[in-house]
Amino acid sequence: SNEADVIEAKAIWDSAKTRRDWNRWCAFRRTFDLVRLPVEAWLRISADAQFCVWINGIWVGQGPIRGYPENYKYHRYPISQYLRPGPNSIAILGHSYGVSTFRYVLADAF
Prior knowledge:
Layout: E1 24-34, E2 42-45, E3 50-55, E4 58-63, E5 75-78, E6 86-96
Antiparallel strand pairs: 1-6, 2-5, 3-4, 3-6
């Protein structure tokens, strides 16, 4: 769901050249350290076509909900329950169809 606030985001992919390849999958991982656990933590995420996200090996969710390129939707997940003191990891599996389908309109990433 989208909130009224404005969120700046940067699209990522392995290469602009492969973004339009048919049935392209890309895996992303970021590790980070926490000295102490936050009281509250949220992940806001979207994708051009599809994503699955895990934190510390625990599946958090998938999406995005259907929308149009001119009105992307994003998901907001509470993630404090997945975090731990010390090293943490977030993993995302992204999927690009590379072609328009009955449920996807091919467009440039945000």
